[in-house]
Amino acid sequence: MRLEPFAENHLPGLDVLFSDPLSLRHTRIPEPPPPGFAGQWLKMYEEGRRDGSREAFAALDDDGRFLGLALAPAFDRKAAEVELGYIVLPEARGRGVSTRMLRALTAWAFEQGAQRATLIIGVDNPASERVAERCGYVREGVMRSAHLKEGRRNDASLWSRLPSDPTSTAAG
């Protein structure tokens, strides 16, 4: 698996993510995504790439097939803090893709000067929490009613990793 900057040629892969109930449930992607959302999302990340405020990478397998997205939706370079996230195609789940994506994304963030990386994971997403653990993230606690989506407020766990933390706290 490799990461490359998210670009227009990756947009067809978003159709699968946008039609997957689990991807929609566990992300901030609107349900349903409005017309043109994929292009707007790409534009937002391209602008963020230019000003250093966010980044997105497409995850590809060895044959160049799209597996998902590794995201840095908010990068405060002055504070050296970054929020990270990942979305994996249904057919790529359960094969360690999320773990490899997050490890690579975390390494990228620290190479960019981040001194604190965070993940915000819905409390109803234990699979993603296991990925965070495998990648050396520490669960800091639960943020109650932290996110509004589709008229519902949801609790989310906050996870963090510092460059000085061990790479992993569990096998994987």
Topology, please?
Layout: E1 2-5, H1 11-19, H2 21-25, H3 37-51, E2 55-60, E3 66-76, E4 81-88, H4 97-111, E5 116-122, H5 126-134, E6 138-149, E7 152-161
Parallel strand pairs: 4-5
Antiparallel strand pairs: 1-2, 2-3, 3-4, 5-7, 6-7
Features:
single chain, 172 residues, alpha+beta, Aminopeptidase, seven-stranded mixed sheet, globular
Task: Describe the structure concisely for a colleague.
The protein is 31% helix and 34% strand.
Tell me about this structure.
The chain is α+β, with helices and mostly antiparallel strands and 172 residues long. It has one domain (2-161): Aminopeptidase. The chain is built from 5 helices and 7 strands. Strand 3 (66-76) and strand 4 (81-88) form a beta hairpin. The two termini are 15 Å apart.
- Count helical runs: 5
The helix-strand sequence is: EHHHEEEHEHEE
Largest sheet: 7 strands, mixed
Fourth-tier CATH superfamily name: Gcn5-related N-acetyltransferase (GNAT)
Secondary structure: helix percent = 25-40%
The structural domain count equals 1
User: What is the CATH first-level class name?
Assistant: Alpha Beta
Strand order of the largest sheet: 1-2-3-4-5-7-6
Name the beta content range: 25-35%
Mean pLDDT: 92
Quaternary state of the chains: single chain
Alpha-carbon Rg, integer: 15 Å
Report the principal-axis shape: globular
The CATH topology label is Aminopeptidase
